[in-house]
Structures are given as structure tokens and as C-alpha cells.
Automatic annotation (TrEMBL):
GO terms for biological process: regulation of cell shape. It is found in: Cytoplasm. GO terms for molecular function: LPPG:FO 2-phospho-L-lactate transferase activity. Required for morphogenesis under gluconeogenic growth conditions. The keyword Cytoplasm applies. It comes from Alkalibacterium subtropicum. It comes from the Bacteria. The keyword Secreted does not apply. This is Putative gluconeogenesis factor. SUPFAM superfamilies: CofD-like. InterPro entries: CofD, CofD-like_dom_sf, Gluconeogen_factor.
Length: 338
């Protein structure tokens, strides 16, 4: 009887990151019978998010907006309105999305970003939970291999140097960075914690460099999965293969905490690599099976490519299926062990 009850419980899957890759995976995971929690970076300082961050001295809303939209079950038209971006010639509203303005206004009304996001999640019929990694904007700092430093998520890749390590600090005061409420408990109670996909140094690491989140990733009994990027990124990961990505994660927390690496082995067509519109992305990330085996106990490799228009994405449906199956099997094995 206990075994049957257990099998009916939804696997608890926590996804951590930011950028454009995270919503792709979340949108597909939403269709699975899983209890989803998204933990979203708050170190962005570029574009519309950066302007609103400086104007309101508040958490940048862009990544949170995309995650809310991905997990929302409101009609398509309402999602399109939430994601609508004003044209560049609209003067004071130039480049802003309606969703960014709504999130900033709601945070101002409620007095904090956490309550604002929870209220919006209810209004948007979000399937799952969405938490900012911290409840205040953070500064991202990078030290390059040559010993020089740079502050600012949007500025770090522009130096064109190899990054050694990154860290985060509070914007206004010199005090320890605190994780947002419920973030640590979500990680500790998860069956699986997924990192990425997303920019390694500027979307994933800003979250895990929050001390309480890093500690929880090391201590959780849930399996930690890293989804390797498909393409290298200018100013971030040139010359790094998939094993190198995992090594960077382990270096930052000082221990091997990733249990599973999910990596693409499908070949990206050359004409996609040469697209000028994708100049931020340089070459396909090479697969180093031997190197990965030295870093993680388990590797999931397959053709995870989705080629749309002139851009390369992860096939969210295939990735979500692998994540869900592995989380469910891990959950079942834990029950059998107990």
C-alpha cells in the first residue's frame, strides 16, 4: 500500500537558471506530471531589466517574466500581451515589455519581489512555483584568467577574456547574500535539481554562488543534473567542452556535486553556425565522454537539437522526457532502498 501511494506522488523537480534556455525546458516540463519549482537569477543588469533595476533599485524582472510565461496556463493572447515589447522609437517605453513593467509595479506595490511573483503566479495560473534566487538585485563579479576583474552581468562577456571565477554581492551594503525564502527548502526536498540550460557564468553560476543555495546543492539528497549548452558563447565559454563546463561548476563550489550530465551529441549544421545573427554563439560545444566520466557518475547523451529558423535550441520535449524519467526512476529507487 505504501509503495502504491509513493508511486502516485509527483516527482519534485527544481530548475535553476535564467536566460532564454530555461523557459524552453520549463514549458515542456509543465506538460509532465511533476511538481515544478523554478529558481531564477536576479543578477541581470542589461536591456529593459537593467533599466528597471536601476530606476526602481529592484530585482531585474526579465528572466522572471519569461519563466512565469513558460509555466502559465492563461490563454495564448494574454501571454502575448504580457510578453509584448514596445518598439525602440517609443521614447520612454523603448524596449520595455509589458510584463517587465507589471512585475516592477507589483514589486513596488507589495514592497518585495517574492510576494509580487507569488501574486502574479496566481493571477497567471502558473503550474508550479517560481522563486527569485534572492529578494534583492545582485551584482555579478568576474575575475579573469589574467587576474583582472569586471562587475556587471552584461559587461563581463564584453571583455573577451577567459573567466576564472565569478561571485555575487549585494548592491547597496557589504553583507552576506541571502537566498529568497523557500528556495533552500525546495532544493533540499527535491527529487531532482536541474541546472540550465543557460549561460554558464552569467545565468547559472550567479544562483549557485549564493552561499545558502550552493550549500543546499551539495547537501540535497536529490540528483543534481547539469544540462550542457549546445553552443559556446562569446566572452564566456570559448574553447570549453561539456566536461569543462562541469569542471567549472565543481570548481566554484569546491566539490563534485553534479550527479548527472545531460549533453547533446547531435551535429549542428554548419550553416547554423555561420549565421551572423547568432554571432554571440561561436561553435558547437564538443562532447568529452572520458572527461565527463571523471566528473559525474551518470551521463545522458542524445541528439537534443531543435533547429528553428536560423537558431539552435534544445529540444525541450526530449530533454523534459529524460529529466522526468530519470527523476521518477530515482524517486522509485529511493523508496525501494528505504
Amino acid at each position: 500500500m505504501k509503495q502504491e501511494t509513493f508511486r502516485k506522488r509527483k516527482p519534485k523537480i527544481v530548475v535553476i537558471g535564467g536566460g532564454t534556455g530555461l523557459p524552453v525546458i520549463l514549458k515542456s516540463l509543465k506538460e509532465k506530471d511533476a511538481d515544478i519549482t523554478a529558481i531564477v537569477t536576479v543578477a541581470d543588469d542589461g536591456g529593459s531589466s537593467g533599466v528597471l533595476r536601476r530606476s526602481f533599485n529592484a530585482v531585474p524582472p526579465g528572466d522572471l517574466r519569461n519563466v512565469l510565461t513558460a509555466l502559465s496556463e492563461i490563454p495564448e493572447l494574454q501571454r502575448e500581451i504580457f510578453q509584448y515589447r514596445f518598439r525602440s522609437d517609443d521614447q520612454s517605453l523603448s524596449g520595455h515589455t509589458i510584463g517587465n513593467l507589471i512585475i516592477s509595479a507589483m514589486a513596488d506595490m507589495r514592497g518585495n519581489i517574492y510576494e509580487a511573483i507569488q501574486l502574479l503566479a496566481k493571477m497567471m495560473h502558473v503550474k508550479g512555483h517560481v522563486y527569485p534566487a534572492a529578494e534583492e538585485p545582485l551584482n555579478l563579479h568576474a575575475r579573469y584568467m589574467d587576474g583582472t576583474t569586471q562587475c556587471g552581468e552584461s559587461q563581463i562577456p564584453k571583455k573577451g577574456k577567459m573567466i576564472d571565477v565569478v561571485s555575487v554581492t549585494c548592491v547597496e551594503e557589504e553583507r552576506p547574500v541571502q537566498a529568497s525564502r523557500k528556495v533552500v527548502s525546495a532544493i533540499m526536498n527535491a527529487d531532482m535539481v536541474v541546472l540550465g540550460p543557460g549561460s554558464l557564468f552569467t545565468s547559472i553560476l550567479p544562483n549557485i554562488m549564493i552561499p545558502a543555495i550552493g550549500k543546499a546543492l551539495i547537501e540535497t539528497e536529490g540528483k543534481v543534473v547539469y544540462i550542457s549548452n549546445i553552443m559556446t558563447q562569446l566572452g564566456e565559454t570559448e574553447g570549453l567542452n561539456d566536461a569543462d563546463h562541469v569542471k567549472v561548476l565543481h570548481k566554484h563550489l569546491g566539490t563534485k556535486f553534479v550527479d548527472i550530465a545531460l549533453t547533446n551529441i547531435g551535429d549542428v549544421p554548419q550553416d547554423y553556425i555561420e549565421q551572423e545573427e547568432n554571432e554571440e554563439y561561436l561553435l558547437q560545444v564538443e562532447h568529452d565522454f572520458k572527461g565527463l566520466k571523471e566528473e559525474v557518475p551518470m551521463i545522458i547523451s542524445d541528439d537534443f537539437l531543435l533547429l528553428t529558423g536560423n537558431k539552435v535550441y534544445h529540444n525541450g520535449e526530449k530533454v523534459a522526457e529524460e529529466i522526468f524519467r530519470t527523476a521518477f526512476n530515482s524517486q522509485r529507487k529511493m523508496k525501494e532502498y528505504l
